[in-house]
Amino acid sequence: MQLDKLNIVAIGGGHGLGRVLSTLSFMGDKLTGIVTTTDNGGSTGKLRKRSSTIAWGDLRNCLTELVDDNSIGSQLFNYRFDGNDELGGHNLGNLILYGLGQVQSRPLDSIKLVRRILRVRTQVLPMSETPTDLMAFYAEGLCRVGELSVDEMPIMPSSLMLAPLVKSISPCIDAINKADLIILGPGSFLTSIIPPLLIRDISNAIDNRKGHCVFIDNLVPENSPAAKLSIDEKLSWIEENIGCLPIDSVICQDAKVKSAKVRVICNDLAHNKVPHHHDQKKLIKTLEACLANTAQNTPTTAPIKAS
């Protein structure tokens, strides 16, 4: 099954979602990215401390992944100031989006304007237009607030929530409802993949999906407590925390991975020169194999290797 004939939604944050969008950029307006907006580190964190705003960094990264690396637009939006003054560490693209956010009526208007500037056809959406933070609960009712703190936890939290609770936006829900394929990951399990699922209207839309939902596992262990979890442990954690398991298949690198819960598609996915990055051609081929095996009603108990 060819991907360019489908409507695809990719959900996540950080560099993982950006690379997926870059891989599928040939799909143009048939592709939608829904971006996690809870980051509180780096340039984004400084801007969020200055005033109440969504996290712009992952949105900026996803937008620039959809344009030519050598273009003026890409160089402009990815430029980072050095030094120890007020601008030091800030990314120019983040500052532009933040500034637009202060003068536009809503964040979505700012993103649409930047898409026109960069000539990005793919829809890139924030998971919510309302600022919110990630909160993790663990032993004896203790909690941590903020993405940076969550990723530094030595143990898996028993649960996560958004504070405050927020709603998504209608374009996100519309895109999920129309999607033939929904992609979660790769990326940090707790801080990139889970936050959008904590928004009830997003998790409900995925649970009631018409299309196939696939989880792309990381190629190498991430630097968080989730690194110690097996695939089924991750799936069980999702099910316990959002009340459903909105995933049909898992794509992974390790042929030894098995699941009692979903179909597993195993393939060599690593880029030859950057082993922690998914190779674009291999990933496209594996996604197509995933959908082809779904159409053939392949049993869920045995791993499938893409040819």
Task: Break the fold down into its secondary structure elements and pairings.
Elements: E1 8-12, H1 14-23, E2 31-35, H2 42-50, H3 57-65, H4 72-78, H5 92-103, H6 107-118, E3 123-126, E4 133-137, E5 143-145, H7 147-151, E6 159-163, H8 170-178, E7 181-184, H9 189-197, H10 200-207, E8 212-216, H11 231-242, E9 249-252, E10 263-266, H12 280-295, E11 304-305
Q: Calculate the terminal CA-CA distance, rounded to whole Å.
A: 14 Å
Radius of gyration: 19 Å
Biggest sheet strand line-up: 3-2-1-7-8-9-10-11
Q: What is the CATH topology classification name?
A: Rossmann fold
CATH superfamily: CofD-like domains
CATH class bucket: Alpha Beta
Give helix % range: 25-40%
User: How would you characterize the largest beta sheet?
Assistant: 8 strands, parallel
> What oligomeric state do these chains adopt?
single chain
Overall mean pLDDT: 91
Low-pLDDT runs of 5+ residues are 298-304
Number of self-contained structural domains: 1
Query: In total, how many beta strands?
Result: 11
**Can you count the helices?**
12
Note the overall shape. globular
CATH architecture: 3-Layer(aba) Sandwich
